Amino acid sequence: MNCTEVDELLRELRRRGGVFYAFGPKDDPEVVVHAHLWPTCADVVILRGEDDATAYRTPTMPGADVFAPALVSWQYHAPAAWTLRAVLTLPTPGDVHAPIAVLKPDPLCFLALDLRRPVTIRSTPHTEPPLPRRADDVERLLPTSEPSYPPTIRAR
Fold first, then answer.
1. How far apart (Å, rounded) are the C-alpha atoms in residues 42 and 22?
2. How many Cα atoms within 13 Å fall on the side-chain side of residue 33?
3. How far apart are CA 32 and CA 4, in angstroms?
4. What is the pLDDT of residues 42-95, one digit of tens each?
């Protein structure tokens, strides 16, 4: 994985706003999570390592735990760079192309309670409005060359 690419994708995620959570020791977290809360749902990215990441969209009902979703409308499981690209190109809620399915979340969508402490939380207000997502935004986030290996992707 190209760390520069992942860093660039994380900067884009940060630019769009949301909250970053670093679960585990501050200097060496076990898991890093980003949650972008929309009025009716949340987009969540769980980064466990370079080759292990998960992203999903879940409804935000009263009392819902976005780190243990009961339902998801979209989920994606792949290496970090692929997962970040996928969530950054996901249509905004309410868009005609936004996912509206009702799916059972994969076990990878759950963040175990014992991993949630200690936690460092950093809010990142967006610097530019995330709407609309344009075709050139999507093209900018696509890889410039084919990966040297086929990524393991389990999209549902």
1. 18
2. 26
3. 17
4. 999 999 998 999 999 999 988 889 999 999 999 999 999 999 999 999 999 999
Helix axes 3-15, 80-88, angle to 10 degrees: 30
d(CA 30, CA 22): 8
**pTM for this model (two decimals):** 0.78
Give the chain as a DSSP string.
--HHHHHHHHHHHHHT-EEEEEES-TTS-SEEEEEEE-SSEEEEEEEEETTEEEEEEEE--TT--TTS-S-BSEEEEE-HHHHHHHHHTSPPTTSTTS----BPPPGGG---GGGSSSEEEEEE--SS--PPPPHHHHHHHS-SS--SS-------
- Would you give the DSSP letter of residue 30? S
Residue for token digits 């084919």?
A: 146
The residue count for the chain: 156
Query: How many Cα atoms sit within 13 Å of 138 on the Cβ side?
Result: 9
SS3 content of the chain, % helix, strand, coil (to 5): 20, 30, 50
